[in-house]
Description:
transmembrane, calcium, potassium:sodium antiporter activity, K/Na/Ca-exchanger, two-stranded antiparallel sheet, calcium channel activity, 319 residues, NCX_ion-bd_dom_sf
Amino acid sequence: MLFNIFLLIAGLGALVWSADKFVFGAAAFARNLGLPPMLIGLTIVAMGSSAPEMFVAATASLEGMTDTAIGNVLGSNVANITLILGITALLGAISVSSQTLKREIPMMLGATALAGYFLHDGQLTRIEGLVLMALFFSLMGYLIWHAISNKERDPLIDEAESEVPKDVPTPKAILWLVVGIVLLPLSADWMVQGAVGIAKAFHMSDLVIGLTIIAVGTSLPELAACVAGVLKKEDDLAIGNVVGSNLFNILAVLALPALIAPGAVDAAASSRDFYMVMATSVALAILILLTGKARQLRPWHGGVLLATFIAYQVTLFLS
């Protein structure tokens, strides 16, 4: 048990660190190749927070643990809204003003509904994975087109562009890119193996492993980004990070188990857990709309979201 705990913690730490270095190296290398910072920010940097979920999902799928990969996606989306935004909102009201964000919430709801449709028959097929991946690339294309054609600067785009590293020597960029490429799959495997060892000791299913231990672990980068956004008085970026991450999880990460290991899905994923993802996504939109022109998540909203997260986790552990 102690070895599995060590493996989980080491894997999580290495996963988050290597994802950061991979994004840093890839973004710096792309900039040195002459790609526009805005394009890099909207692709490589924006996808960075979902890199842990992507590598964990791919690793779990390759090891025949499709339910863990699916649970990671569903659990991460629930954790992003209830745990991450719950904690962040407790630090102070979070305003929503970005035009891009007002489009992204309906996109997130639509993508979530589509995922539910694909999962409802208890199967995740390779065709469905291709559809999700095609929608992901279409979304990226749309965001890039909108950023280029829209004269008004969007804070989410500005933030993504500002995170593209400058004046990084190409050898250094390549070094961190290679380090990330090597360590990401290794650390994802350590984390999966550690989580599985712990969970099996408590007789938890592969799905619940993904929904709990792994989902919370891979959501930690979003927590750091959201808290940093609020502390910098950039409220809109907090919800933007969560909504963007949830979109990427549904379209890009859920596509991986479908493409790598298509087949049957745990029945609870298409009922209990999908309903939870959909309910929390809709609740986020409703909570914001109910504040009228203020368009805010308030501290008491954060308390409700955090209580929802705790209740859901307790339900999973008792199931």
